[in-house]
From TrEMBL:
PROSITE patterns: COA_CT_CTER (PS50989). It catalyses: N(6)-carboxybiotinyl-L-lysyl-[protein] + acetyl-CoA = N(6)-biotinyl-L-lysyl-[protein] + malonyl-CoA. Component of the acetyl coenzyme A carboxylase (ACC) complex. First, biotin carboxylase catalyzes the carboxylation of biotin on its carrier protein (BCCP) and then the CO(2) group is transferred by the carboxyltransferase to acetyl-CoA to form malonyl-CoA. This is Acetyl-coenzyme A carboxylase carboxyl transferase subunit alpha. The lineage of its organism: Bacteria, Bacillati, Bacillota, Bacilli, Bacillales. Pfam families: ACCA. Acetyl-CoA carboxylase is a heterohexamer composed of biotin carboxyl carrier protein (AccB), biotin carboxylase (AccC) and two subunits each of ACCase subunit alpha (AccA) and ACCase subunit beta (AccD).
């Protein structure tokens, strides 16, 4: 069973109580259906109250949940005939980014996404989902391949940020990210990006120049982590909760500001509670987006992407007397 988060502790305790009563009723052959039904009704009410009033920091915690579905989980549930492709044809293969070709509702597509681990061993292998420059170059190679063969591109964003280590900088981390931004802007095929967990800084944006950008309900998308922002603004990382509220990093904030196109609803308690149900929600979202974008010409796709990002950060000038 996955570890509970602080804000959902009352829900977890009530679930445990219901489980205990069911075990007692089963082993002692006692009819406790009425008590169990009452508690289950209370549980639904409590879940509705807690999960509909989550604060930004609560959503940050859910986005970081160790058992939250990753890119590979969604690939397995949503797509068929996936073939993973490796390497950037220059330095090596970065396992923090996974990509390849697959089929979606009978249509060939290219999938690219950040990949973190769910255990310490896997996280070390995946570099905790923080790509090196060769990871972004691999992603770009697959994007250009998709363009050549007229395949739509679907990107899953889930990273704290690009790896900031010395080796990554020596191999051109900033250039690799900038190159992706430049090239993605001009791709002649539909591009859909979905933030499925954390979307941190340029490391996330390198897969985010898309025609359609969606976020899972409890994901985050920001230029820096709340801890990092608190350290810079107030010299105190422990004020991350206040920073999360001020930064407007939730899906609802970003939808309101026009930065993303839509929000994918999550199952109660977060995507990790029911991966299959969550994958179905995401599949429906991708299907609808593809049906809209497939009808556009190459020029219309590029113009659509251009206009989308031109509108971000609009401001109004007022004359000052």
């Amino acid at each position: 069973m996955s570890k509970s988060l602080d804000f959902e502790e009352p829900v977890v305790k009530l679930r445990e109580k219901i489980g205990e009563l069911k075990e007692i009723a089963k082993s002692a052959e006692v009819d406790m259906s009425s008590e169990i039904e009452t508690l289950e009704t209370r549980l639904k009410q409590l879940e509705a109250k807690i999960y509909s009033n989550m604060e930004p920091w609560d959503r940050v915690q859910v986005a970081r949940h160790a058992q939250r579905p990753t890119t590979s989980d969604y690939i397995e549930e949503i797509f068929s005939d996936f073939i993973e492709l490796h390497g950037d044809r220059s330095f090596g293969d970065d396992e923090a980014i996974i990509g390849g070709i697959a089929s979606f509702e009978g249509q060939p597509i290219t999938i690219i996404g950040h990949q973190r681990g769910k255990s310490t061993k896997e996280n070390i292998r995946r570099n905790f989902g923080m790509p090196h420059p060769e990871g972004y170059r691999k992603a770009l190679r697959l994007m250009k391949q998709a363009e050549k063969f007229n395949r739509p591109i679907i990107c899953f964003i889930d990273t704290k940020g690009a790896y900031p280590g010395k080796a990554a900088e020596e191999r051109g981390q900033s250039e690799a990210i900038a190159r992706n931004l430049f090239e993605m802007a001009g791709l002649k095929v539909p591009v859909i990006s979905v933030v499925i967990g954390e979307g941190g800084s340029g490391g996330a944006l390198a897969l985010g120049v898309a025609n359609k950008i969606y976020m899972l309900e409890n994901s985050t998308y920001s230029v820096i982590s709340p801890e990092g922002a608190a350290s810079i603004l107030w010299k105190d990382a422990s004020l991350a909760k206040q920073a999360a509220e001020a930064m407007k990093i939730t899906a609802f904030d970003l939808k309101e500001m026009g930065i993303i196109d839509g929000i994918v609803n999550e199952v109660a308690g977060g995507a990790h509670r029911d991966v299959q149900a969550q994958a179905l929600e995401l599949k429906n979202c991708i299907s609808e987006a593809l049906s809209q974008l497939n009808s556009l010409s190459e020029a219309e796709l590029i113009d659509d992407r251009y206009e989308k990002f031109r509108k971000i950060g609009e401001f109004i000038e007022e004359e000052v007397n």
